[in-house]
Specification:
- By secondary structure, the chain is an alpha+beta fold.
- Strands 1-2-3 form a three-stranded antiparallel β-sheet, with no helix packed on it.
- It has two domains: about 30 residues, no CATH class; about 35 residues, no CATH class.
- A hairpin with a 5-residue loop joins β1 and β2.
- The protein contains two helices and three strands; from the N terminus they run ααβββ.
C-alpha cells in the first residue's frame, strides 16, 4: 500500500482502508486463506528475500467460471 499514490483529500479514507485490510485480512492471513477455495502464495528469490505475494479467493460455487477475488 503506497501512501504516495493517495489523491489529495483522500488520506483519511485511505488510512481507514489500510486499517480495515490489516484487521480483516492481512493481519490474519493464515485464518483468512485457510478455507476451501482459497490460496495464498509467497515468492522468494534464491537468497530467501521476498519477491511477491498472491492471494486468491473463489466463490463457494462456480459462477460462469469467474474467479472470486485476486489480490
Amino acid at each position: 500500500m503506497n501512501r504516495a499514490l493517495v489523491p489529495l483529500g483522500m488520506e483519511a479514507a485511505f488510512e481507514g482502508y489500510i486499517a480495515r485490510a490489516v484487521r480483516e485480512e492481512i493481519g490474519r492471513l493464515g485464518e483468512y486463506y485457510a478455507g476451501s477455495r482459497r490460496s495464498f502464495w509467497v515468492t522468494e528469490d534464491a537468497a530467501g528475500a521476498l519477491v511477491g505475494t498472491f492471494g486468491l479467493t473463489g466463490q463457494e460455487t462456480a459462477v460462469d467460471g469467474r474467479l472470486g477475488e485476486v489480490l
